[in-house]
């Protein structure tokens, strides 16, 4: 995704005992939910209001479709559900 020498913004997740850093290019989870929810809503609209994904979907399918982890997906779907923007069933997400 990135080229050698490219400048990116990242946050430090952990400093290892050997001095190396674990970095993340994503914001903290509570700051990332809004962008993830927006991404899901855009996909819903593009696909006619339904998506064949649930909290039981495979992590690899979620990563492939939305470029986010399953836990990030579940947080964003939970936000959309609480806001009344989507409904959930056993086999799909539907725009309200």
Helix fraction by DSSP (H/I, runs of at least 4): 40-55%
- Global Rg: 16 Å
Strand coverage percent: 15-25%
For the largest beta-sheet, the strand count, sense and barrel status come to: 3 strands, antiparallel
**Low-confidence parts, pLDDT < 50 over ≥5 residues?**
none
How do the helices and strands follow one another from N- to C-terminus?
Answer: EEHEHHEE
**What structural class do the secondary elements suggest?**
alpha+beta
Number of strands: 5
**Oligomerization state:** single chain
Distance between the termini: 34 Å
Mean pLDDT over all positions: 91
Form type: elongated
The tally of helices reads 3
What spatial order of strands do you see in the largest sheet? 3-5-4
Features:
single chain, 96 residues, alpha+beta, three-stranded antiparallel sheet, two-stranded antiparallel ribbon, 3 helices, 41% helix, 18% strand, elongated
Written description of the protein model:
- By secondary structure, the protein is of the alpha+beta class.
- It is 41% helix and 18% strand.
- The protein contains 3 helices and 5 strands; from the N terminus they run ββαβααββ.
- Strands 3-5-4 form a 3-stranded antiparallel beta sheet.
């Amino acid at each position: 995704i990135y080229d050698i020498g490219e400048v990116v913004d990242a946050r430090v997740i952990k400093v290892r005992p050997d001095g190396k850093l674990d970095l993340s290019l994503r914001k903290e989870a509570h700051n990332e939910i809004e962008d993830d929810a927006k991404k899901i809503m855009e996909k819903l609209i593009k696909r006619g209001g339904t998506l064949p994904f649930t909290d039981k979907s495979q992590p690899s399918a979620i990563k492939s479709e939305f470029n986010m982890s399953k836990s990030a997906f579940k947080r964003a779907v939970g936000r959309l559900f609480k806001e009344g923007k989507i409904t959930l069933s056993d086999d799909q997400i539907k725009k309200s």
